[in-house]
Amino acid sequence: MKQWEAMEAFVEVVHQGSFSKAASRLDVSASHVSRLITHLEQRLNTTLLFRTTRSIRLSEAGERFYQHCRELPNTLATAEEAVSALNQAPMGTLRITCATTFGERYLAPLLNDFLLQNPQVDLDLHLTNREVDLIEEGYDLAIRMGALRDSSLLSRRLCDRAEYLCASREYVDQHGMPHTLAELNKHQCLMGSKTHWVFSQNGQRKEVKVSSHWRSNSGPALLDAIRRGLGIAQLPDYYVKEDLASGRLISLLPQYQYPYTGVWLVYPRALKPSPKLKSVCDYLIQRFEREDIFANWRARI
Questions:
Q1: DSSP strand E in the chain: where?
Q2: Which parts of the chain sit beneath pLDDT 70?
Q3: What one-character-per-residue DSSP string does 190-202 give?
Q4: Distance CA 119, CA 121 (A)
Q5: pLDDT of residue 104
Q6: Main-chain phi, psi angles of 119, to 5 degrees
Q7: In what side-by-side order are the strands of the sheet with 121-127?
């Protein structure tokens, strides 16, 4: 900071042609400006200004130094204006990560609408089922599903989310349907990326581990296996909503279904959220609330 202050003082002295006028422009004393220049010369081990009682004159080293420093005040002002603009209107690049299927079906279209309204915002959208480290990998925002882990990250609820245990009609016709959690081990269970299924029993969350002959980290692949009658599986509502509403799939053990969990907007803690981050979070929440994306078909199940 002192180094910058000394360089700023040096440029102002050259611009004004005197220590007193430079001091007045910088709102400091002339003696303070003189000390700054002296310290700068000592650090550079050279004379920058020749001083007399009537005038100042640049040395050869001072002339060369001035040519490199003279735009620094304008550069600083431009930098401050740029930061100030960022704090006033949404602009810059938004780096967002989300689970693949939810991102493709719901998030991406809404983000594209957001960009149409905010042309100064650029988007870097990364869809992956891996839980990304926002801070380490430089993301502004993540959309996370289900119960959140304790974290230094901040979060806002985007919408509700439920998971349904499902099977095709063909599977049920051939193997019947379970009536209790204990009967799950008698069925062909298809597993996704999780190691357990989540239910509610006597008002408490219950995790059930089942043996499986089929496993995949792909939600669409798991849905296809259910549709083909290979077994039963638990999937989020946004995968199975159309199949449940049409009757292609059957919801199993509804009495044990865990209450709605959330879909969350998660972002790093900051002194003040940037306008681009606040704007996109507000926009997504408003769109999900206004359109209530899952409500219509849930009422028909």
A1: 49-51, 56-58, 92-98, 121-127, 141-145, 154-161, 163-168, 190-191, 197-201, 204-208, 214-215, 233-236, 249-252, 261-267
A2: 1-2, 53, 77-78, 80-87, 150, 271, 292-301
A3: EE-SSSSEEEEET
A4: 5
A5: 92
A6: -65, -15
A7: 121-127, 92-98, 141-145, 261-267, 154-161
pLDDT for residue 110: 96
pTM: 0.64
Domain ranges, ordered by start, for the chain: 1-71, 92-161+261-291, 163-256
Q: For residue 300, what pLDDT is reported?
A: 46
**Contact predicate 118/90, CB 8 Å:** yes
* pLDDT the model gives residue 85: 60
Fold of 163-256: D-Maltodextrin-Binding Protein; domain 2 (3.40.190)
Please give the structure tokens belonging to residue 287.
């769109």
92-161+261-291 CATH, one of 3.40.50.720, 3.40.50.410, 3.40.190.10, 1.10.3720.10: 3.40.190.10
Return the CATH number of 1-71, one of 1.10.3720.10, 2.60.40.10, 1.10.10.10, 3.40.50.880: 1.10.10.10
For residue 301, the model assigns a pLDDT of: 46
Q: Which tokens hold the place of 129?
A: 């089922």
Query: Beta partners for 77?
Result: none
